Amino acid sequence: MQTSSSSSSLCAIVPVDCIFNGSNQLAYPCSFNLGLLRGSRKLKISRLKAGFWESIRSGLIKNNSTQVIEPLSSSQEEEEPLPEEFVLVEKTLPDGTVEQIIFSSGGDVDVYDLQALCDKVGWPRRPLSKLAAALRNSYMVATLHSVKKPAGEEVNNNKKLIGMARATSDHAFNATIWDVLVDPSYQGQGLGKALIEKIIRALLQRDIGNITLFADSKVVDFYRNLGFEPDPEGIKGMFWYPRF
Amino acid sequence: MLLQGNFSLPFRSPLSLRSPTVHHHPRRFSFAAAQHQYAISDEDLESRGFTLRRTIEDLNLDHLNSVFVAVGFPKRDTDKIKVALEHTDSLLWVEYEKTKRPVAFARATGDGVFNAIIWDVVVDPTFQGIGLGKAVIERVVEELLQKGITNIALYSEPRVLGFYRPLGFVSDPEGIRGMVYSRKKKK
């Protein structure tokens, strides 16, 4: 990745989280004040996109096809509050379309989209009303959406749910992560990892120290690599009359 | 007591990203009514001087905290305990009539429809061994089942695995592992 030598603070690769930090010197448009990002989901996304384009226009080298916005160093991570919504990955496809993967912890999920995503990964159908209730009753729902901007167009509302994870919690001590899924066409790119990392970070920032989950044997290593330990001190996960 | 049965566990946390895990369709629970056959009945407990309580009303958090400490939990801030209890789906405590103090406790959190985890299961050491722990777990499980929640899990210290097993809990079913995030171990 080339970095523009002229702009010092505005590098080609800017940790996106920095953009939301008040102390950063970037002359950043107010539309990124998250307080303003209420209202409809569509409006949220277009404001995010508009501001983002303005910000990178001055610093981007045109030839970059993929921009991965790297996570911050761990010390910064712990101090800076995680914004509710930000661009995780951006890339330019061969046809000039620019695709952004947007992370959001706002919990605004369309249950129909979610059901379609669950279908895609092969999970059995669950009643929509129960899905909606489960989401409502979750402490945190994190999503990944793909937003595509075809070349030559300014703003669009073409967003697709491609990943989700949620956590239940008692708001004080414990949280449990459930239902982690990533669209099969988007797997293998580190998106699941990013989802979990962000959720963990958000939970830790809310001072919820005990973060737990139950992992199928095939994904134990996936979570191990993210900092989870199976059976710590011999503590075992147990289920009431599981049937298989 | 608890009925063995062919009820399924459809919605344990499916955390596999690539390969779908096997799930089963939920069954209707017709045994729910029969569940009220606890090892020790409510009346039995009452006659021995124990009252079952299901709300935090009248629950002295300092007394609860001392039970936690007595069984070896780290001492926690009572304000935080209050927040936790206010965001808990079900809880049950046993009040000893003579002292009005909590002598057994358990609570469950979850999403209210699919999953629940039981936390903070304690019995005051002075009152252990007489069936209070079992009484509390049986009733918490029953309440969750009544709500339609069939995926009921917990994290058990190794020394009490033998307590949970006869109550119907299975560890690592089909290789599912309970995992906990550790900041120290982060790569």
From TrEMBL, chain B:
InterPro entries: Acyl_CoA_acyltransferase, GNAT_dom, NSI-like
Superkingdom: Eukaryota
GO MF term (any one): aralkylamine N-acetyltransferase activity
PROSITE patterns named among the record's database cross-references: GNAT (PS51186)
N-acetyltransferase domain boundaries: 50-187
Gene3D superfamilies assigned to the protein according to its UniProt record, in alphabetical order: 3.40.630.30
UniProt GO BP: melatonin biosynthetic process; regulation of photoperiodism, flowering
Any coiled-coil regions, as ranges: none
Pfam families (UniProt xref): Acetyltransf_1 (PF00583)
Keywords attached to this entry: Acyltransferase, Transferase
Membrane-spanning parts: none
One GO CC annotation: chloroplast
Record protein name field: Acyl-CoA N-acyltransferase
Native species: Cynara cardunculus var. scolymus (Globe artichoke)
